[in-house]
Amino acid sequence: MSDAKTEAKQAKPSAVGVFFDELRGSSLLIPVLAIVSGLLLGGLIVAVTSKSFYEVWSTSPLQAIGNGLKAAWESYVTLFAGAFGKPSKIIDAIQGGDALEIRRAFNPLFESLVKSIPYMFAGLAVSLGFRAGVFNIGVEGQIFMGGIFSVWVGYTFKGLPPIIHIPFAFLAGALGGALWGFIPGLLKAKTGGHEVINTIMMNYIAYRLTDWLLREPMKRPGSTNPISPIIEDSAKLPQFFENPIRFHLGFFIALAVAALVYWFLFKTRWGFDLRTVGANPRAARYAGMNIVTGTIMAMSLSGALAGMAGANELLGVNHNLSQTFSPGYGFDSIALALLGRTHPVGVILSALLFGFLRNGAVRMQASAGIPIDIISVMQAFILAFIAAPAIVRTIYRLKEPKKAEAEFHVRGWGGS
Amino acid sequence: MAAILELEGITKRFPGILANDHINLALEEGEIHALLGENGAGKTTLMNILYGLYSPDEGRILIRGQDSHIRSPGDAIRAGIGMVHQHFMLIPVFTVTENVMLGDESTTFGGVLDHNTVAKRILEISSAYNLEVDPSARVSALAVGVQQRVEIIKLLYREASILIFDEPTSVLTPQEADQLFRIMRSLAESGKSIIFITHKLREVLEVADRITVIRQGRVIGTTTPREADMNKLASMMVGRDVILEIAKAKAKPAGVTLKVQNLKVLSDRNTMAVNGVNFEVSAGEVLGIAGVQGNGQTELVEALTGLRHPVEGRVELLGKEIGRGTPRQITELGSAHVPEDRQRDGLVLSYPVTDNLVLNTYYLAPFAKGVVLQPKVIEQHAEELIEAFDIRTPSSLVNVGTLSGGNQQKVIVARELSRPIKLLIAAQPTRGLDVGSIEYIHSRVIQKRDEGVAVLLVSTELDEVLQLSDRVAVMYRGQIVDVLPIEEATKERVGLLMAGIHPESQAA
């Protein structure tokens, strides 16, 4: 008994523990308050832009405010129901006992999870880059490359057993993304060309490449639309439930990859290299680390993770490549990675948040008539608050974090 | 004599520290009052309060007996307070005149700058106080000592009567420092009042009328050079008795460890920073490289440690050419490097002490097995070094950035000296540290020397070089002007060499 107790005390800090420790060190409140503020401001915008508000405003401002608040409240209720499912419907379905109805009732929840998977991969991609000191804006292009590679493997090879075909197609996607990260990585390391500029350019190349591929070599025979053939069944990520629930294996792959990224970054000497290059490149050089290979490796791995986001979507959900399969996962994931403090655990949590918001917004648009773009506005608010914690601190009158600032001023004034 | 400036009960708190704790200080008219204390004792905070950059939590400032509210540097300047900063606030591409009038431009009709009047005024000031300077010279072309004079003129031009000098000698040669002291004397004689901030005991005894010692935000006492000596001041500063002179046996140099031949290294600006340097360091001796900051020492050290590739010449470590080696190759040959800028190069401030202690050995057994780091071994290693090197930290897992400068440096020293090494390259190993840490690091360096390690010490603190070295090389404008055995390396002789004046070439 007592042995077990002491063992528990000395247990190594878990991944989750480390994440929360890091948060506590820098104040857990900021991301939470950023989200809350984003939701509040989003609600305000819904209120102000609703017809029932601005049409009544000139005649009766008070009533207009009431209408606006009502509109905001209703849209959040539908957002919530869209993201988690309606409790009343779930209870009815379970009492009714009809399997299809039960699946339908639970579908919103699972659909939110499905939506969060690409965010997980893409968020990990951005985070790994950040940790190594590179700003990978090219995740979107790398997602497309991952999609191209995995779909090609998915429909070209026929007769493979799933146990081979799925990993093959998935890793092909990772390779495509890695290639698209490797190039700007190489350019940065060898020529100093800034990765932000180069990855943006690589995004354009990836879009247009997709365009061309879908019109020419990868075009589905007999189709007039720019769309690829459907992948073989053997390449599809298995789904766990019947229609309409699309929840698939990708979710667990994402969690496993997050764990792997955590292990790589914090438990291996490669990760130590990358993090040191990111935290203080001069000290990394002093310590004998190779900045050139570090940068190339970081960009390639980041690209590989982004490629997995593309592969996941196409093998798990879309099953064929089209020009519109990513609604900007790559760009949202930058905000997401910051919200998750570039830590794998944080990324998973933020990705879930984004998935639920996005999925809820679809329902909100359908039933409350609120445009889905309001979610983008909310995400923008959240990102602004995360990027400038001073705003959140000022609004909520939080204290300055620790004494870092004070020290800085003292140092700035000499004392050598 | 009347007090021109009185600080009464000044208290300033920062989160977690009491930077100033009811400080009382009276500056009399026409005196040089030294404020002596270690880094972090609260000198700079106090002066920033006086200069209006911080407002005190408690206490008041009296100027000529009048309660004064100084809320900004502008208020301070209007109250006649001027500060000569450690890092000069001059614009290099402007002339002396332009720099002096900056922020207080005098103009003729229509807003045209009136250079002539200002230049005339500068000449008046410079002849009144022996501050020789050419008003039309471009600041970038002036020697550091002269630039400092421009800073002083700037204050006098604004008719400051209270002058604060913040560590003014840190960038000067001993001769330039002597000249500065003469200037300070003549300023005081003509009625200016001076606060002289420093941590150098010798200077305080040389120039101050009165000395106030601050420790941990509190005034420990006020004394005069007549009543005090170095040992007394040092113990007031540190709070215990201090050994100022390190006891060391005569060196027993063995074979040559490091051999540098005709080394040429470019600076970041592509100028020849190291221009044909030759020297050797033997096992069991300390070769000190003295010189004013910016004479190629930084580039020399970078070339010897693989951080910068030389354009010409040879560097041999134990017979192996390392001029083109990477930092890792050189480290693995048994070279240790205490870098000049510890926070920029030597540490990752956002990493815990544990990781910093294995920053250049993390990839080796036992710290890594294959590719997997061994946190338990790394932590164990850290605990041992924290104990052995007396690193004051709440735990081995706190970030190194939260430690004091002295303890940060101890982390580096512990990391570098705990490995089996043949060569130690220590650049500015005690810059900005408290007396206790300096003492400790010096003794560790000598200990390594006695174990047969070749030590190359690069320092701009002449006292440090003279104290630790067995031979002294003086670097000036990228060249080693002379190498002296320690017995012949007097302060005067080395000081002249640091200014590029070679006795023999003078005679010729």
Overview in brief:
Chain A has helices at 2-10, 15-26, 29-49, 51-54, 61-84, 87-96, 99-131, 139-156, 162-191, 195-215, 250-267, 269-279, 281-286, 291-318, 329-339, 344-368, 373-387, 389-395, 404-412.
Strand order within the widest sheet of chain B? Answer: 6-7-8-3-9-10
Radius of gyration of chain B: 25 Å
- Content of β-strand of chain B: 25-35%
Largest sheet of chain B: 6 strands, mixed
Inertia-based shape of chain B? globular
Q: Write down the Rg of chain A.
A: 24 Å
Fraction of helical residues of chain B: 25-40%
The N- and C-terminal alpha carbons of chain A lie at a distance of 55 Å
Number of helices of chain A: 19
SSE order of chain A: HHHHHHHHHHHHHHHHHHH
Helix content of chain A: over 70%
Q: Would you state the CATH class of the largest domain in chain B? A: Alpha Beta
Structural notes for this entry:
The complex is a heterodimer of chains A (416) and B (508). By secondary structure, chain A is an all-alpha fold. Chain A has a domain at 117-351. Chain A has helices at residues 2-10, 15-26, 29-49, 51-54, 61-84, 87-96, 99-131, 139-156, 162-191, 195-215, 250-267, 269-279, 281-286, 291-318, 329-339, 344-368, 373-387, 389-395, 404-412. In chain A, helix 5 (61-84) packs across helix 7 (99-131) and helix 15 packs across helix 16. Chain A starts with a helix and ends with a helix. Residues 1-12 and 402-416 of chain A have low confidence and may be disordered. Chain B is of the alpha/beta class and 508 residues long. Chain B is built from 18 helices and 22 strands. A six-stranded mixed β-sheet of chain B has the order 6-7-8-3-9-10, sandwiched between helices. Chain B has a six-stranded mixed β-sheet with strand order 16-19-20-13-21-22, with helices on both faces. In chain B, helix 6 links the parallel strand 7 and strand 8. Chain B is globular. The mean pLDDT of chain B is 89. The chains are: A mainly alpha (416), B alpha/beta (508). The A-B interface holds A 12, 267-270, 272, 276, 279-280, 282-290, 399-400, 402-403, 406-407, 409-410, 413-416 and B 14-17, 19, 39-40, 43-45, 47-48, 53-54, 85-87, 166-167, 170, 305, 307, 326-329, 331, 337, 339, 344-351, 355, 359-360, 362-363, 368, 371-373, 375, 431-432.
